[in-house]
Write a structure and sequence with these properties.
This protein is of the alpha+beta class and about 120 residues long. About 25% of the residues lie in helices and about 30% in strands. Strands 5-6-1-2-3-4-7 form a seven-stranded mixed sheet.
Length: about 120
């Protein structure tokens, strides 16, 4: 079982060399290991961690949060974010209603991604 520090340094932090603070990820395509899952409609980085919000798409009906630890690469030329998740794993993640990521919501995402991230 992970403790809070593990979540702050792994699931909710970008992997080395993937995040550049000088770039805005809005409207980047998000690619899972088996196909496209949508477009970044929000990218956040702060005290509660870093994550992207992916819009609803043909894969799922509601937006989803993907924690920064799932991001494996950023391609700024192609405006693309690659994640270490399948389309099914993104589809089955808790829905996001665009409210604040409060501690309860964050805990639900942490519980889910703790079980699916490699």
């Amino acid at each position: 079982m992970r403790n809070l520090w593990d979540y702050l340094t792994n699931v909710w932090d970008y992997r080395e060399l993937t995040w550049t603070l000088d770039r805005d990820l809005l409207d980047y395509d998000v690619e899972a290991t088996d196909g496209r899952v949508g477009t970044v409609v929000r990218a956040a980085s702060g005290a509660i961690g870093a994550y992207i919000v992916v819009d609803k798409s043909e894969v799922f009906a509601q937006a989803r949060i993907i924690p920064a630890g799932a991001v494996t690469s950023l391609d700024h030329e192609r405006r693309r974010v690659d994640v270490s998740l399948t389309t099914r794993q993104v589809r089955e993640a808790p829905e996001h209603d665009f409210g604040e990521l409060d501690p309860d919501a964050r805990a639900a995402y942490s519980d889910y991604y703790d079980n699916v991230l490699p």
